[in-house]
């Protein structure tokens, strides 16, 4: 999106009854923004590991090139923008608003290049996502159309097969006022093709109708019907029909109750020898505000799934019950506490038909997370503690995960601010007959430190340092399973009163793979960037 500058001016006389209302905010925007950069990357090591997820620009690139016609975001305007480098990763998009905002057209195109860091040379992978939208208001009604095409060409090291897939999504939505609520009708289609025929082609069509009504001052009710038609690999069509009811009820000034019921009628094979037939879901949530700034919320979810064997020899009904809770408030004027927890229990396990008939899923999952925020002076200090336990009784397996985080940010002076954070995650696992089970759950650590300084009215400095890594014996020698990384980012910016900028940057980064040094890399980037606004 374009970078927009907003300045709002409010004028109102004080001490006078019946004073004139405040003037509406004045929006000031640059007509055009042009931000271009020259980046020089120096590499030593595995470049493909560095480009595993994206390919940053090397050489000339555009941080932003945008043009705006029209000054009122709620009225007619055109906005077009481009970011990136045409030969590497980029994003471009445009938005056109006409007829006082009643007509809106939009479009965007995004491309990313990346690599599988396999020891042998692998072809470059690419993903491209294009989207077009149209929205039209007709009185109280609004029609929205969307088209999206997602192209992915991914190449991997042997023996994994390449993946050349296309996913097309189209939808149309009509929304309008209906009494004291709204009516929404929609239709969508998602089509998936695999050009290498590794995965089956899939087509999913959905129809939906949702009605919401405000019934009196305290009750808001919503009902809906959805139908999915699913066809996989040119086979028979599978169908899922869904009916739902949900609502919110005010029980008082400080208490609200949310509730919902969902029923699904399915003809949907889930594995080779079983299919889902029916699913029932009931939910409830109670929120209450206590005195003294404290609040609490509790929730419950009940889900039953009816499965039938292909030979119709047995019907199974796995049942999952989940409870959630949260309490938050202030221990003191400058001390805030938030605690949330969850518990999930599965009963009525589906039968496993294989050589090992023990269940593969967790039948009990529990978690708790607490965060303390301390507001002191011109800064904030926070601490977070989270713990989770997953249990599989059938396999006598348990996974315990604990994570802690401590951080804060401070404005030391009007011109100097700093922030820091340290996170640590640890896992402990055991399973009967699996002495090495714990080794497959690595712990991790992340530390970051940053500073922002105004050297003068026009000169600014920012710097960050991040160190991250995992601690894992990695018995299967998985690349990237045990690593360490150190990343610096430093920038000096000159900002003129008219908003134009010049920036110099330096980013030295280093990555170590403790399992296989083939994946190590060391790189540094020198950046010169200029931004102009018109």
Please give a quick description of this structure.
The chain is mostly beta strands.
Overview of the molecule:
It is a single chain. The chain has 534 residues and is an all-beta fold. The protein has one helix at 47-50; strands at residues 32-45, 59-69, 77-84, 90-98, 103-114, 125-138, 141-154, 163-178, 181-194, 202-215, 219-232, 237-252, 255-271, 274-289, 295-309, 315-316, 319-332, 335-347, 364-376, 379-392, 397-413, 416-431, 443-454, 459-471, 483-495, 501-513, 521-533. The protein has a 26-stranded antiparallel beta barrel. A hairpin with a 2-residue loop joins β8 (163-178) and β9. The longest helix has 4 residues, at 47-50. Residues 1-28 have low confidence and may be disordered.
Question: Topology of this protein?
Answer:
Layout: E1 32-45, H1 47-50, E2 59-69, E3 77-84, E4 90-98, E5 103-114, E6 125-138, E7 141-154, E8 163-178, E9 181-194, E10 202-215, E11 219-232, E12 237-252, E13 255-271, E14 274-289, E15 295-309, E16 315-316, E17 319-332, E18 335-347, E19 364-376, E20 379-392, E21 397-413, E22 416-431, E23 443-454, E24 459-471, E25 483-495, E26 501-513, E27 521-533
Antiparallel strand pairs: 1-2, 1-27, 2-3, 3-4, 4-5, 5-6, 6-7, 7-8, 8-9, 9-10, 10-11, 11-12, 12-13, 13-14, 14-15, 15-16, 15-17, 17-18, 18-19, 19-20, 20-21, 21-22, 22-23, 23-24, 24-25, 25-26, 26-27
């Amino acid at each position: 999106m374009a970078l927009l500058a907003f300045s709002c001016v409010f004028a109102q006389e004080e001490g006078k009854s019946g004073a004139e209302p405040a003037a509406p905010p004045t929006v000031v925007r640059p007509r055009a923004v042009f931000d271009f950069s020259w980046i020089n990357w120096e590499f030593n090591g595995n470049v493909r590991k560095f480009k595993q997820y994206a390919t940053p620009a090397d050489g000339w690139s555009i941080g932003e090139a945008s043009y705006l016609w029209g000054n009122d975001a709620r009225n007619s305007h055109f906005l077009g923008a481009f970011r990136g480098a045409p030969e590497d990763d980029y994003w471009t998009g445009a938005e056109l608003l006409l007829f006082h905002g009643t007509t809106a057209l939009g479009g965007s195109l995004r491309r990313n290049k990346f690599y599988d860091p396999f020891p042998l040379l692998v072809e470059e992978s690419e993903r491209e996502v294009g989207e077009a939208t149209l929205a039209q208001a007709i009185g109280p009604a609004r029609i929205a159309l969307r088209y999206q095409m997602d192209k992915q060409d991914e190449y991997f090291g042997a023996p994994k097969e390449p993946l050349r897939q296309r996913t097309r999504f189209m939808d149309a939505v009509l929304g309008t006022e209906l009494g004291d609520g709204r009516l929404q009708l929609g239709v969508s289609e998602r089509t998936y093709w695999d050009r290498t025929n590794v995965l089956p082609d899939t087509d999913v069509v959905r129809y939906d109708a949702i009605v919401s009504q405000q019934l009196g001052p305290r009750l808001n009710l919503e009902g809906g019907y959805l139908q999915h038609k699913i066809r996989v690999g040119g086979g028979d069509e599978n169908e899922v029909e869904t009916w739902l009811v949900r609502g919110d009820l005010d029980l008082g000034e400080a208490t609200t109750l949310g509730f919902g019921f969902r029923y699904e009628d399915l003809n949907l094979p889930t594995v080779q020898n079983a299919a889902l037939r029916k699913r029932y879901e009931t939910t409830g949530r109670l929120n209450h505000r206590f005195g003294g700034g404290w609040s609490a919320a509790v929730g419950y979810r009940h889900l039953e799934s009816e499965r039938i064997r292909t030979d119709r020899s047995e019907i199974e009904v796995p049942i999952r019950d989940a409870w959630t809770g949260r309490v938050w408030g202030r221990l003191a004027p400058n001390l805030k506490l938030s605690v949330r927890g969850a518990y999930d229990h599965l009963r009525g396990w589906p039968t496993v038909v294989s050589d090992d008939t023990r269940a593969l899923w967790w039948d009990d999952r529990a978690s708790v997370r607490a965060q303390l925020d301390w507001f002191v002076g011109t800064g904030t200090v926070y601490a977070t503690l989270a713990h989770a336990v997953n249990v599989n009784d059938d396999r006598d397996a348990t996974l315990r995960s604990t994570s802690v985080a401590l951080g804060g940010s401070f404005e030391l002076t009007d011109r100097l601010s700093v922030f820091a954070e340290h996170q640590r995650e640890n896992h402990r696992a055991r399973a009967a007959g699996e002495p090495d089970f714990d080794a497959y759950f690595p712990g991790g650590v992340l530390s970051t430190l940053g500073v922002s300084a105004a050297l003068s009215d026009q000169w600014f400095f920012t710097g960050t340092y991040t160190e991250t890594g995992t601690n894992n014996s990695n018995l299967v020698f998985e690349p990237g399973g045990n690593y360490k990384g150190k990343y610096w980012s430093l920038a000096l910016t000159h900002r003129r009163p008219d908003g134009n900028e010049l920036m110099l940057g330096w980013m030295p980064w280093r990555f170590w793979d403790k399992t296989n040094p083939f994946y190590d890399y060391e790189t540094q980037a020198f950046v010169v960037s200029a931004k102009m606004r018109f």
